[in-house]
Amino acid sequence: MRISLGQMAAAPDKSQNLDTIRRIASEAKERGSELLVLPEGAMVHFGDASHRLVDVAEPLDGTFVSGLRDVAATAGLAVVCGMFEPYDSVRVYNTVVAIDGQGDLIGSYRKIHLYDAFGYSESSKIKAGDGQTLTFRLGSMTFGVMTCYDLRFPELGRQLVDGGAEAIVLPAGWVHGLLKEGHWEVLLRARAIENTAYVLAADQVGDLYTGSSMVVDPLGVVRGRAGEGSELLTCDITTQRVKDARETLPCLVHRRFTVRFVDPPLGEAVVPQEVDVGVGEALGVTPIR
Fold first, then answer.
1. In this structure, which of 106, 116, 170, 218 has its CB flanked by the most CB atoms within 10 Å?
2. What residue ranges in the chain does DSSP mark as E strands?
3. Which pLDDT belongs to residue 47?
């Protein structure tokens, strides 16, 4: 399967971003791609601390997703893209939608892990998802979805793979800063290696973001990397590569334990419980609510 990552800078205007996405999708289709992955928040830029995302958020049947569905149907390729859904008068959901090549919405994922780190407070604007994850089938391959900061939590990647994912798509707005660029590559490759799955990470660019969108294969080999500007990165991925990697490195079968999170009493830390379940067995992971 040929896939493309559309590295772009989201503007404040949603219609302008849809026009940008339409151009990207057209080029991706010309290259023979079946899937286009766009960044987190491609609907509209996050803005500074004073920017009210609640004023621009839309439901899944709103004009932005409807526009994405038209883009996908016109180009005849699947699209994965970040947007914002309403929650209340202060916060929104940071949502990724998946649309197939006929323009049908096949699923959505609300970001679970919020970026309250490195001096940033995503939770002041964003409501965390309830833990529901998203996998979807496209052609002969199954994909799972993460969003940006989720990359730092290996439990989520493992849950997606336990659900059948052979590739993880990661729309992101990875904020640059001291050590951040290094973390980006190390974590992308780690999630690929430990899950013997492709990782397809599409990042935003601009003054705030890292860029460097990347395709990493199931043994951690970087198959393609974008630069620091707007760019369309296209690569071929195969189920055979996943199969071969999992036969060569059968760590998914060799697992001796999984991690189950238990909701603690209010004010206490969440403690991971190690449970020995035997070779090849998996209990799954319950994400933190």
1. 170
2. 2-7, 35-37, 78-86, 92-99, 105-110, 126-127, 135-138, 141-145, 167-172, 198-203, 214-216, 222-225, 231-236, 257-261, 272-276
3. 81
Q: Measure the CA–CA gap between 236 and 216, rounded to whole angstroms.
A: 11
Span 201-229, pLDDT tens digits: 999 999 899 999 999 999 999 999 999 99
Alpha carbons 106 and 155: distance in angstroms, whole number: 24
Which residues are tagged catalytic? 40, 111, 148
Place of tokens 């772009």: 8
**Cβ(213)–Cβ(247) under 8 Å?**
no
The CA–CA distances, whole Å, from 16 to 7, 20, 40, 42 equal 15, 6, 16, 11
| Cβ neighbours for 38, distance < 8 A, ≥ 6 positions apart | 6, 8, 21, 24, 79, 80, 81, 82, 171, 202
Structure pTM? 0.89
Given a cut of 70, the residues of the chain with pLDDT beneath it are: 258-289
Rounded Cα–Cα distance for residues 184 and 149 (Å): 10
